[in-house]
């Protein structure tokens, strides 16, 4: 079974996030947590303790280097863990795919499939 959430928020690049103060990074993670929790409640999605495969699709106005995109999603992936959308972000518990597509609106779409 595949669960899907969409967060209408800008995905940042690592180049941008690395220049921020630690407190700003924490605020971003808290904002992501709130948005993820809201989507999980709205769609009646439960947290998991199982190994998962997630596919993150970022809608961006301008394509960026894939390594910058993945590293810039650190706070988002940490928020997914805190909200129990995924159990843990270590390779033992998570298979991760990240892609990007051009879009007029910023968005982050996450599709989760629990591995059996």
Quick structural gist:
The protein has 116 residues and is an alpha+beta fold.
* Helix share bin: 25-40%
Intertermini distance: 11 Å
The number of helices is: 4
How large is the share of residues in beta strands? 25-35%
Class inferred from helices and paired strands:
alpha+beta
Mean pLDDT, rounded to whole units?
93
Main β sheet profile: 4 strands, mixed
Tertiary shape = globular
Rg from Cα: 13 Å
List the helices and strands in order.
EHHEHHEE
Strands side by side in the biggest sheet: 1-4-2-3
Question: Main attributes?
Answer:
116 residues; 4 helices; 35% helix; globular
In words, what does this structure look like?
The chain has a 4-stranded mixed sheet, with helices on one face. Helix 2 packs across helix 4 (74-82). It is 35% helix and 28% strand. The termini are close together. The protein has helices at 14-17, 22-42, 66-72, 74-82; strands spanning 2-7, 52-60, 94-102, 107-114. The longest helix has 21 residues, at 22-42. The chain has 116 residues and is an alpha+beta fold. The mean pLDDT is 93. It has 4 helices and 4 strands.
